[in-house]
Design brief:
91 residues, alpha+beta, five-stranded antiparallel beta sheet, 2 helices, 5 strands, globular
Length: 91
C-alpha cells in the first residue's frame, strides 16, 4: 500500500525511510504495534479524514499511526501525501 502511494506521488525514499519530493514529505518508522508516518509540515495540511493521530499539538509536524491490522483509508492517505508534495512545491 505505502509503496503504491509513494509511486503514484512521485516520491523518493532514501535509506533512512524518509520520503521526499521537492523537499521532505514524511518519515516512516516501524514499531512493534504500529507504523508511524510523520509529516514534516503536517500542521500546515488539512486533515479531513482525521488521519493525523499523533503530535496534534505540535507547531510543525503531525503523524499518522497505523496499528497492526488497522484498516487504512488508502485514498485519504494518498491525498494527504499529495497535499504534502503540493505544499513543498509552493516553497
Amino acid at each position: 500500500m505505502l509503496a503504491d502511494i509513494a509511486s503514484s506521488c512521485a516520491l523518493t525514499i532514501d535509506r533512512s525511510s524518509a520520503w521526499s519530493c521537492n523537499g521532505g514529505v514524511c518519515t516512516g518508522e516501524v514499531y512493534n504495534s504500529a507504523v508511524k508516518l510523520t509529516f514534516f509540515k503536517g500542521a500546515s495540511l488539512a486533515n479531513p479524514a482525521a488521519l493525523f493521530t499523533f503530535s496534534l499539538d505540535g507547531k510543525v509536524r503531525r503523524a499518522v499511526d497505523i496499528k497492526h491490522g488497522q484498516v487504512v483509508d488508502e485514498a485519504a492517505l494518498a491525498d494527504l501525501v499529495r497535499a504534502a508534495v503540493a505544499l513543498n512545491a509552493m516553497g
